[in-house]
Structure formats: C-alpha cells, structure tokens
Amino acid sequence: MGRKVTVATCALNQWALDFEGNLQRILKSIEIAKNRGARYRLGPELEICGYGCWDHYYESDTLLHSFQVLAALLESPVTQDIICDVGMPVMHRNVRYNCRVIFLNRKILLIRPKMALANEGNYRELRWFTPWSRSRHTEEYLLPRMIQDLTKQETAPFGDAVLATWDTCIGSEICEELWTPHSPHIDMGLDGVEIITNASGSHHVLRKANTRVDLVTMATSKNGGIYLLANQKGCDGDRLYYDGCAMIAMNGSVFAQGSQFSLDDVEVLTATLDLEDVRSYRAEISSRNLAASRASPYPRVKVDFALSCHEDLLAPVSEPIEWKYHSPEEEISLGPACWLWDFLRRSQQGGFLLPLSGGVDSAATACLVYSMCCQVCKSVRSGNQEVLADVRTIVNQISYTPQDPRDLCGRILTTCYMASKNSSQETCTRARELAQQIGSNCLNVHLGVYQGSTFSWFETDFRCPRLGRRPLGVGVGVQGALGQSLQNVQARIRMVLAYLFAQLSLWSRGIRGGLLVLGSANVDESLLGYLTKYDCSSADINPIGGISKTDLRAFVQFCIERFQLTALQSIVSAPATAELEPLADGQVSQTDEEDMGMTYAELSVYGKLRKVAKMGPYSMFCKLLGMWRHVCTPRQVADKVKWFFTKHSMNRHKMTTLTPAYHAENYSPEDNRFDLRPFLYNTSWPWQFRCIENQVLQLERAAPQSLDGVD
Predict the structure, then answer these.
(1) How far apart are CA 170 and CA 278, in angstroms?
(2) CATH code at 250?
(3) Least confident of 222-231, 234-243, 422-431
(4) C-alpha span between 250 and 517 (Å, rounded)
(5) What is the DSSP string of 322-358?
(6) Does the predicted model carry a pTM greater than 0.70?
(7) Are 194 and 227 in contact (CB under 8 A)?
(8) CA end-to-end span of the chain, whole Å?
(9) Residue 392, domain CATH
C-alpha cells in the first residue's frame, strides 16, 4: 500500500467578478497540479468570484455565476482524477456562507462553510456572511438543478466534516480560522486528520509574512501533520495587495514556499510527502496522544480515492527548506509595484503621470514605477506570455518586446515638474536628474501664469482691494488667510494640470488612451492632514499612501544601490519641504517638520499608538510618559500629545477624500474601510485634555526634583 502523497496548493491572481478569467486561472492551476502528479489541489478563498466582491455578495447574480463556474469546473476533463478544493459563496436555508466546495470526478464530496469570519481591519466578512456555528455537524444541502444534472446528486453534505480517503484523512480550515485562539486544525489533528488545508484571502502588510509562516509551522510542530496554505495574489480591484506566500509544511518544517510578489497570475506549489513521517512524529508526543484519546470525532465523508500510489517505494520525497524573507525595503520595492501593474493592465490605460517634485515622496513613487518596469522585463525574459501581451496592449505596439526597464519606463511613465516662484533650483535639478536616470518622459511647466490669473480674477470679480496692497508671492512668511490661500492655489493648480496632462499627454504624441495620475502623499502626512485637499494628493491611485516617511527614506536609499539611481542621493539627504512659501535669498524657507510642529519619527509613534494600540489622548499621554521619560518632561509630553490630536482631529475631514492607496501599514488613517471614525470633532478635546493637565500637575507637584535633569 502506498504512503507517499503528492499535494498541490496555489496562489492565483483572481479579480472580483471576473468569472471568465477566474475560471481559466483555476483550470490552469489544476492542470499544472495534475501534470506534477498531484492528487489533491487547494485554491484560494472565494477564488471563483474573487475575494473582494464586497457588497456584490448581496447580489443573487454573484451566487448564480459562481455556481455556473462550478458547473464548468465539474464538466471539464481537466478536473478528473484529482480532488479539487475551490472557494465560493453558497446560500443554505437563506443564509449566505463563505464556503469550500470539494469535488472529485463530477461528484461534490463536501461543502465546508467558514466557521470564524475575519471582521477587523480591512475585513468585513460578517457584513456579507454568517459563520457556521455547528461544530462537527453536517446537513444535506439541496444542490441547484444545473449541478444536479452534472453530478446526478440531489444533495451534498454541508457543514463541519473531514474527508476519509483510502490512505489518509483531510480536513479544511479557512483563512481566519488559523488565526483564532482555538483553530480547527487542533481538534482535527487530534482526531487523526493528517492533511490540513487552509484557503486564504490574506493581504500584504509590511513585516507580516513571518507571522503567517510561524502560525503554519507551529500548527504542525505541536500536533504533527501536513499543512497546505493557498492564498490569493495581486490587486483584485481594491486598495489591498494579496501577497501569495502559498506554502506546504509538515511536522514544523516548510517543504514548499511560494513567491510573495510576482507578476505570474498562476503559481502552483507541489510537494511529495511520506504519511509515515506524520504518523511516527505524532506517535512519540505522549501529551498529544493523551489528548487525542479523548478527542471528539468529526463526521467523515468517505472518498473512494487514494492520494498515494501502490508502487511508490522509489518515489523521491520533498526536502525541507529554509523560508526566505524579504527585507522591508524589498517588500516596498515589490508589493506596490505589482499592485501598480495589476491596476494599469486591468484599467486599460496607457501608463502613469506623476507630478515629480524632487522630494522623497514623489521620488519613491517614481522608483516604484521603475521597479515595476524591472519586474515586467524580468517576467518577459522568463517567458511569461500574459505579461508580454499586456505590455503590448498598454503601449499599443503589437511587436514590442520590453528588454530595458528605462525604455519601458519612457513609454509608460510621464513625470512633470511643476515649478512656481517658490521652487528652488535644487529641487528642479533633482527631479530632472531622476527622470533622466529612470528614463521617464519628462515635462516641465511653470505655475506662475496660472496662479497669477487666478488671483487677478478673484480681485476683479470680488472687488478685493486688500490683494492689491499685498504683492502676491512676495515676502517670506505671509500669514493668515492670504498666506494659506497662496499655498493652496499652487497646490490645487498642480492637481488640475496633472489631470490635464494625463488626458492629453499621449494624444499630443499621436498615441491613443490616457494616463493614470499617481499621488504621492505618505501615511504620516495623511494621518496629520498635512496636505491640501484636492492638491496633488488627489489622484487616481497612490502606491505610497500606506507607507511611513521613515520606511520611504529607507526604500529610496535601497533604490540607490539596487537600481544604481545616484540622483536619489541628493533627494534623500535634502530636508522635506512642500515649497509653497517664497524662497529666502534663493533658499527654501519652509520645511515639513517645522510646519507640522513634530518630526516624522514622532508622527509614526503617534499613528501606531492611536490605531494599533487603540489609544485616545489620555492613554497616549500615559504611554509616552514612560517611552520618552529620558528626553521629555511630563509637560512636554502633554504638549506634544495635545498638539497631535488637535491637528489630527482638525484635519480628519481630509481623510474622506484621500486617493485610494496601497495598504501597507496597520496605522493607516484611510477612511474608506480601515479606519472608521468621525470627521467632525471638537478639536479642543476639553475633557480629555483636562485629564492630561490634571495628571501633569499632579506629577509636577509630587516629584519636581526628578525632572531637573530633563531638558
């Protein structure tokens, strides 16, 4: 009797509601798995309709089309003689569930509903689905007639059960269930289930990959067994990038690792593993065996099929590997770049337009497009025909084959330096040199005539003689409504011109189509509201909107070495400035940190405490008393916290208009779904600030001597 099993898992770049494309990618993954000898294939969560359908799950069309795709899968000869595990929404007794549908040779073996739904951060599964709460219980599900006609089954088992093949036992858990305190794999493993599968829809967050890997390896380390994890990859139409990392593990070791970032729409992992290794591993863990002897049994669905072959003694088995992680800088280089590629090809636009200021943020955005071009060229060289076809469609040249990233960048990226009277020669030079090094199509425009005509119109039509007494754009430090309006007009004109050039840039060169406008506001500026509403932060998409200033600086430094972009050296060493105030003797008179009243490093701390640690003003003050006790007095800490919350609440309304941005940080203030808060606050925070003030006074009275050494 055979004991070696070959199993397959995959990462698929599915797209919400793209039923045709999703079907083809599923079939391709099954075909690859079969060609590699696999007898079981696991796919990502909700792969038939795409994970990010959101409120489309309410529509009966989504359920109907999902079953139509399932029928096509059942009917396809590709799915014969392999157990296929696919994900789709299913309605049972008028309740909608997030399900796995497992089938073999035109027979549905089990419909397994998700038992723990993800409902935090970016996830809202409880809005659309109901968790299955009846552990170790199944019911009969009445199959739609289109499925009955194919399977010759009236019903199929629906609920919490496992599959018993001739040679092993297979159990399912779905995404979030791995992250719960008492995951299903624990009880399933104790009940003799040897292969655990997990279909995920897990998105990228910086520095998160190790958590996922640790959960899988720990699951199999404590309880033994084989663990397969599948995941979606790519942008399926939203702010999230699903980062693959499919894997196969056994007994605490990883045997197959999928890529975290790639342009391949279909990636299949297979491993051949010996079931006896599971059994011998478990046999010597006495504590596990004692718990197993008391375990409650799962309903077993008998399957007349084996994952192993009779004659497999000479079949080679897979060897354990060491998981390779990307550095945070590499993650930034690859993740947002892949997201940009998916957005570009699926939006059917002709490229990107980026206002390039000569600062770190816009430079980092330009580097991400260049990194995308590098990945496209690499993928084409490796023979990816889908990527080649997409490139030719984007540049509108059927014979074009990208080889040089600079050449490709020149075809799909237009950068535009928008100067004003307040722009320094240094930023102009930095922007020009970077554009030359990455090969972008570079434009230069001066805002003076647009800004001047705007104020002339205002003075004439609104009879405002005060403007005539203050020369526009002259003198450093113009304050109040006039100074603010001068800065805002510059910023908003840039947005208007960016969209004008995006629509007409290709047309002016005799090329069809338009360009997607890229924004470049980082997560820290958004958190504080340090941006002008409807300025260049308003764009079609923003690849750096979920990345901190600190990480962006590290990323730009990384690009200097990785891509030999020496122009970035002067950019990363220059002080951050919006250049909205007039120059002083030809030099920049305005810096971001002076404007904000805090450093970017402090802002990241505030952001993490506010969102990740879930702290209001008083709790944050108490926390920072300890964190900053060697550098700040309680009074200074109080002033900093009050200033942050005043500015944050005052500008919270700006979050309602933020450009859709790549999600990379868990302290993002994105108002659409991740950070749900009011946008009209009492910005004086009277009760909260009074609590802080009372605590400061108490500390100052109690121990004045302990504060003598703190500046």
Answers:
(1) 13
(2) 3.60.110.10
(3) 422-431
(4) 46
(5) PPPPPPHHHHHHHHHHHHHHHHHHHHT---EEEE--S
(6) yes
(7) no
(8) 77
(9) 3.40.50.620
Task: Please identify every residue annotated as catalytic.
Answer: 45, 114, 175, 357
Question: How many angstroms separate the CA atoms of 545 and 664, rounded?
Answer: 8
| 90 confidence band (pLDDT: 50, 70, 90) | very high
How many angstroms separate the CA atoms of 42 and 673, rounded? 29
Q: Of residues 204 and 480, which shows the higher confidence score?
A: 204
Residues 679 and 574 in one domain: no
Tell me the pLDDT tens digit for each residue of 156-205: 999 999 999 999 999 999 999 999 999 999 999 999 999 999 999 999 99
Domain-terminating residue out of 564, 596, 628: 596
Residues 354 and 365 both lie in one domain: yes
Residues 636, 571 share a domain: no
Asked whether residue 476 is domain-assigned, the answer is no
> Which amino acid, one-letter code, is at 454?
T
CB 685 within 8 A of CB 652: no
407/563 Cα distance (integer angstroms): 14
What is the C-alpha separation between 217 and 321, in angstroms, rounded?
A: 12
3-state helix/strand/coil string of 574-616: CCCCCCCCCCECCECCCCHHHHHCCCHHHHHHHHHHHHHCCCC
Instruction: Tell me, yes or no, whether 392 lies in a domain.
Output: yes
Structure tokens at 382: 């490796």
Please indicate, yes or no, whether residues 303 and 338 belong to a single structural domain of this protein: no
Tokens representing 287 are: 């504590």
Contacts of 469 (CB under 8 A, 6+ apart): none
546 is written with which tokens?
Answer: 């979920």
Q: Do 544 and 678 reside in the same domain of the chain?
A: no
Model confidence at 419, in pLDDT bands (50, 70, 90)? confident
Based on the domain organization, do 155 and 188 belong to the same domain?
A: yes
Same domain assignment for residues 561 and 640: no
| Nearest Cα to Cα of residue 409 among 453, 344, 466, 470 | 344
Taking each continuous run of H as one helix and of E as one strand, the counts in the chain are 24, 20
Q: Which of 323, 351, 381 is a domain's end point? A: 323
Query: Domain range spanning residue 382?
Result: 326-461+481-596
Please tell me the total number of residues recorded for the chain in this structure.
Answer: 711
Strand pairing class (226-234; 4-12): parallel
How many domains are contained in the chain?
Answer: 3
Please give the share of the chain, as a percent, with pLDDT higher than 90: 80
Q: What is the largest CA-CA distance in the chain?
A: 96
Give CA angle at 206 (242, 184), nearest 5°: 60
Instruction: Kindly state whether residue 475 falls inside one of the protein's structural domains.
Output: no
Determine, yes or no, domain membership for 710: no
- My answer on whether 433 and 497 are in the same domain is yes
Give dist(CA 316, CA 337) in Å, integer: 38
Q: What are the structure tokens assigned to 699, written together?
A: 């500390």
Out of 134-148, 309-323, 667-681, the most confident range is 134-148
d(CA 526, CA 529): 5
Arithmetic mean of pLDDT over the chain:
92
Nearest to 649 by CA among 695, 592, 606: 606
Contacts of 709 (CB under 8 A, 6+ apart): none
